[in-house]
Amino acid sequence: MVATPIGHLGDLSQRSITTLKQVQIIAAEDTRRTGVLLAHIGHEGCELASLHDHNEDSASPRLISRLQAGDSVALVSDAGTPLINDPGYRLLQLAWQSSIKVVPIPGPSAVITALSVCPLPSQPFRYVGFLAAKAVARRQQLQTWLQHPEAVVFFESPHRIRHTLEQLAEMTSRRIFLAREMTKQYETLMQGSAAELLAQLATPPKGEFVGIIESGEEMTQQFQHQQVMQILLQELSPAKAARLGAQICGVNKKELYELAMSMNPQPPKK
Ligand code: SAM
Asked: Which residue among 4, 76, 209 has the greatest number of ligand 1 atoms within 8 angstroms of its CB, and so is best to mutate?
């Protein structure tokens, strides 16, 4: 499993280069992209096999046969560390099942690279990969994760990042870190509330993004209190909702009354 750069070719490690030059076959997500990397290290003309999301099931057993015949295979993805939201899991599973030695050749990954420069509290963190494409599903995912104190590390595409930030602006006051185009010419690191980031972000945004929602239990509690009060306010006046809410959440009723008033309560249903 050979990690490759997430932008800057200088980040390819010496061990990755040696490994790529030694193996008989390089299995690549996109053979053309890997060709550029191999040209960079002066290793054109080696045997390449295509292994991507749509052919993993058929390509993996073929590679296992080659391994069993004594060849060695390096797996690379388009960028970063294989299997981190990249293909290769099927091949890895089969290799383990066939008692074939698996060797990690570590290197860049957008997840760890973003965490390494994130100024917001982000330990422990939950890595969630790409958010759901549909807005409703994405809101549900975010709602679930925001109920937990862990920071949330996610990948996002340029055409969805604004929508995601708009949703987050409605859902949380936790701060967010955005790492755009890391290790590349237009690398940009930003932090702030979702609304602040929306104001900073170009329209339309360009490039690849990693987002990190800061960790925060107090914020999470605030969110839970809001959920409870939202339900109670449908049936009760703010004062009654605050009294009952205080018993449910185990907090001061004055705090919940103030929260209720900030939520712009409508008169309770008759
Ligand atoms: N396996 C890769 C890794 O370990 O970094 C991640 C692959 S995933 C298919 C690609 C996503 O990672 C992009 O859509 C983007 O969200 C993020 N990403 C990759 N390179 C990046 C970079 N240079 N700057 C910011 N985000 C990046």
From this structure: 209
For the CA of 83, the nearest atom of ligand 1: 1
C-alpha 39 to ligand 1 mean position (Å):
22
Q: pTM of the full predicted structure?
A: 0.84
Q: In this predicted model, what pLDDT tens digit does every residue of 91-130 receive, in sequence order?
A: 999 999 999 999 999 999 999 999 999 999 999 999 999 9
- Euclidean distance between CA atoms 196 and 174, whole angstroms: 12
CA–CA dist 145, 130 (Å, integer) = 14
The alpha carbon of 181 and the centre of ligand 1 are apart by a number of angstroms equal to 9
Beta-strand pair 25-28/73-76: parallel
Atom of ligand 1 at shortest distance to CA of 110?
5
pLDDT tens digits, 20-43: 999 999 999 999 999 999 999 999
176 touches ligand 1 (CB under 6 Å): no
| Per-residue confidence band for 222, with pLDDT thresholds at 50, 70 and 90 | confident
Domains of the chain: 9-97 (3.40.1010.10), 110-215 (3.30.950.10), 218-262 (no CATH)
